[in-house]
Amino acid sequence: MNLVIVTGMSGAGKSSSLKFLEDMGFFCVDNLPPFLISKFLDSNLKRIAIGIDIRGGELFDDLFTNLEKLDSYKILFLDAADDVLIKRFKETRRIHPLAKNDRVITGISQERKILQEVKSKADYIIDTSYMRTNELKEKINDIFIARKKFDSMIINIISFGFKHGIPHDSDLVFDVRFLPNPFYISELKELTGNDLPVKNYVLNQDASKIFLNKFLDLINFLLPNYIHEGKNQLVISIGCTGGQHRSVALANVIYENLLAMGHSVFINHRDINLR
Questions:
Q1: FRET pair for 146, CA 20 to 30 Å: which of 1, 93, 234, 262?
Q2: Is 28 exposed, middle or buried (0-12, 13-18, 19+ CB in 10 A)?
Q3: Are strands 47-51 and 233-240 parallel, antiparallel or unpaired?
Q4: Domains in the chain, please, with CATH?
Q5: Could you report the average pLDDT of every consecutive run of 10 residues in the chain (275 residues)?
């Protein structure tokens, strides 16, 4: 029997993950009190996914006590950056379960403390901050159906414009304003780094080629060391002046290279439509 415990931060995608697992043939139960988990061991079900989170109140504290009674299980932990969670709660107009009469960020902070132990013991941690729904579904399929090797490090590539501010959750920031700016070329000004003429202009610069080689060499050194220290998310921000040309073109190439290396990588052109 395959038993998956689905848990994590409120708003990080637990409900969606359970739906995906259900579509993949798992029998799914959401918000089950931990003491009832063992009841499923007597069933003939081959694949079971159980959603457990802080909505269970004091019952959540007994999670590991009840899991110790089981021979085999996997824990899937869904996470996301605080600012992303706040935005999701505001968009859905939901109230955080730990912040009934308080700010959402207060509930998120309390929840992180409560979930610290379960996150440290999770078999799979997926950060959904920059994931689209179909990307989360694909990731879950890779883990539980295709049985692909799980890469706990999720890399987010963000292109941005310095005039709009540096992404506050950046781990690494690279300033590519040393390259010639396509903005000052009339036929390229209204295009972006997603357009072939701008891409060719930026990538054909000798400085761009040297930068990319040195960048990839640095990342290849850093990633295994980050993973060894338990880091599960890396946000790499590539910035130019406005965030439409140089940073976009280089971010795309970096994304393609890291993807080809087999990493879990996602890309977001934050300021591409801003002027």
A1: 234
A2: buried
A3: unpaired
A4: 2-144 (3.40.50.300), 154-269 (no CATH)
A5: 88 94 92 77 80 71 76 88 90 83 88 88 87 88 78 84 92 96 95 97 97 95 84 89 97 94 87 90
